[in-house]
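User: I'm preparing a small set of examples for a lab meeting where we compare how different chains pack in three dimensions. I only have the primary sequence for this one, and I'd like the structure in token form so I can line it up with the others. Please keep the answer compact; I'll paste it straight into my notes.
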Amino acid sequence: MARYTDARCRLCRRLGEKLYLKGEKCFSKCTFDKRPYPPGPRQTRRRKVSDRGLQWREKQKARAVYGVLESQFRKYYEEAVRRPGVTGDTLLRTLELRMDNVVYRLGFADSRQQARQLVSHGLLSVNGRRTTIPSRILKIGDSVDWTTRGKRSTYHAIVSENVGSKSLPSWLVRDANAMNGRVEQLPEIDEIGAHFNAATIVEYYSR
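Assistant: Understood. Below is the structure token output for the 207-residue chain.
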């Protein structure tokens, strides 16, 4: 399974924006705060970015936030084009309904990267069946719970202590005591708080 394995802070520095890819660590020890310039040799002259470059940058931000490689991200876009409605909104909802993102939104992980690891290790289930696919797209009514192995883990005990204090989007329902959750409705676009412009991404691929 291909995935990005380099330092997350390099992505933020390259794209020129703090994307909070490492959860709580981004609020304390953050490389971007100390070095808010691109990695590599320092440039003495700032170059003007073209419109195409700006569109590419927005697409790269989305990929970095959700941890998606280019081929998979393009498939999400092509599927969004085929569906009725606003393409950018459909694309954004698809990314939000990924299994790893739902686990992160439920407060079971501090970052999407950590949520991806939990799913890959088989610690979580969907509708009572164990899953190891972080990219699985959930539907309305799907429930997320911990497997027997997941409930016995030390991590489960740590998370259960403070999961109730974590914020929860309106499109999800969570039982903090039972440590499970459910997709109640489609994600609200205004509530997602994306660090990128979905409409600009559509412009990039439609050229």
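A couple of notes for your slides: The chain has a mean pLDDT of 85. The longest strand covers residues 143-146.

User: Perfect, thanks.
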